[in-house]
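thought: user wants a sequence for this fold. calling inverse folding tool.
action: design(structure=
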C-alpha cells in the first residue's frame, strides 16, 4: 500500500483553510454593507486577525500591516 503526500511549492500558508474562509467572509460582509475593502484595509485587517488569533506571522509590527507579498499571494 503506497501512500502519497500532497506536495506543495513555496512557503507554508499563513492561514489555514478555515481562517482564510473566515477572512473572505468578513470581506464579503463589508462589501455587502457598502464598505469596499481596499488592499491597504485588507492588509491591516489581516494583521489584526493574526494578532487576535495568535497566528505567528512575519508582518510589520510597527506599521501593524501585512506585507504586499502576502496580499498578492492571497489574491
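)
observation: tool returned 75 residues.
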Amino acid at each position: 500500500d503506497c501512500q502519497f503526500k500532497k506536495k506543495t511549492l513555496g512557503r507554508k500558508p499563513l492561514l489555514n483553510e478555515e481562517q482564510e474562509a473566515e477572512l473572505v467572509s468578513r470581506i464579503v460582509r463589508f462589501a455587502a454593507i457598502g464598505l469596499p475593502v481596499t488592499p491597504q484595509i485588507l492588509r491591516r485587517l489581516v494583521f489584526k486577525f493574526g494578532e487576535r488569533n495568535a497566528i505567528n506571522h512575519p508582518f510589520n509590527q510597527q506599521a501593524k500591516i501585512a506585507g504586499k507579498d502576502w496580499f498578492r499571494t492571497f489574491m
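thought: summarizing for user.
answer: Here is the designed sequence. The helical segments are 17-32, 39-52, 68-74.
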